[in-house]
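Schema walkthrough. Field components (list of strings):
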Amino acid sequence: MNQIHRPARAYEYETDGQEIYRQSFGMIRDEARARLSALPDDVTDVAVRIVHAAGDVAVADQIAAHPDVVRAARSALRSGAPILADSNMVAHGVTRRRLPADNEVICLLRDDRVPALAREWQTTRSAAAVSLWADRLEGAVVAVGNAPTALFHLLEMLEDPSLGTPRPAAIVGMPVGFVGSAESKTALAEHELPEGGQVPWIVVHGRRGGSAMAAAALNALAHESELA
Amino acid sequence: MNQIHRPARAYEYETDGQEIYRQSFGMIRDEARARLSALPDDVTDVAVRIVHAAGDVAVADQIAAHPDVVRAARSALRSGAPILADSNMVAHGVTRRRLPADNEVICLLRDDRVPALAREWQTTRSAAAVSLWADRLEGAVVAVGNAPTALFHLLEMLEDPSLGTPRPAAIVGMPVGFVGSAESKTALAEHELPEGGQVPWIVVHGRRGGSAMAAAALNALAHESELA
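Field assembly_structure (string):
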């Protein structure tokens, strides 16, 4: 490859990555102050990162969380728990150097068994792939950033007493879309396990969500540092 | 692995992927009718997919496009042009089976040369990685779905007559964020090449954007089919 030359500067813009983060998080904390202060203290930093990924402070109004979710997810990740994601975009949005124990990040959407299971069960491949998580689910941190059907399917696994599905440590519930998305997040916020209680959760209510917000939540749960 | 059992259905939700697409796109066309009808005809389908990825019809108001962008991008991809993306999330959001010529999807953010270039040039790694696109840029489809600095840097490469940077076929400009994002997209919409004219572009103006919207735009440009 030939020598690479920097182009002449033609625009005024901030080029220091750490400074961009600092300014961005400052603007978010200022503009979303009211809503952020209504969230549990340890959820605030996670919410700031979700808003950052969305590029929209209005998303702060849609964030809700179980009071134990940050503690549970951080503790699980420090202990080496895997992250299970419903989409490859979510998995690739996790910043590896933020992970406290070089944790595995797993998406099984392209597993060979998925197409046949989806056909047999007449459901989406995203939902069928969630059933393949079962033997890694114990104490894991789960993130749904794409398919409402994946979140509904996960809740059905956890709520069906005949399956004995292991309990994850925490669920990031941020599927996106116009059909079933809002309902799936309401279901997560209201679910009850057969033995009582809930798996701690964090959601962006309504139609919005998506892989960028889910990955941002994971990155905030993985490490307390705000930068990079 | 043990036999996998489908959990008992506990919620009412649509499980047919194609039906979810159909209903979603119908809702978007209905709710965003006014704005969609103001866009060039061939941009409408791309806009519907961007709105779908955002889970929010308000995004339709922020979409703007050069009149040739859809024709230019489709023609380039059919001819086998690569897709160059600023982030791994964008690259992993491209649905490979929609690509008309098994096109390469390239992200150079993790290239070994990036950290040193970023330090030398005092810019972000995202921007430095764009300079490494140069020998693949001719006729390519470019997507910026994360870093405003990457989009500014690309424009500076194209506008610096001393570099002789090859021309891409089209630019998907959808960086997200609070610092520089809106400005970078205004710059793209208003840029002028040294020889006159523009590289055809499509943007989501303002702070919003992101890897999911950029990947959705690429998936719509790659193939005319609305489904999957």
